[in-house]
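Protein Record: Sequence and Backbone Structure Tokens
======================================================

Structure line: whole-number tokens from a learned vocabulary of local backbone shapes, matched to residues.

Purpose: to set a sequence beside its fold so the mapping can be learned.

___
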Amino acid sequence: MEIIKKQKRKFTSLYKARVALEALSGKFSIQELMEKFDLNRKQILNWKDILISKAYLVFEKEEPENYNLVDREQSDGLKNISRLTERENIND
């Protein structure tokens, strides 16, 4: 009998941010988000808590020394996610 090991999935920071933002929006229940993103409850709540606990960093005056092009691209991606989420809320 062969044991099949599940391969661990890796998620980008943009994906995690989108899930966390949707969890914060309250538009969907955790159960709905679990089905929508194929994630477990603990993972969604963990990403939501991380976003809440580090949200203040968005308002820091100085950019960290290691803030480079990749970070700027991720920031642009988060802006796009925010716009999409806003659009979805308007269309409802």
Q: What stands out?
A: The chain has four helices and no strands.
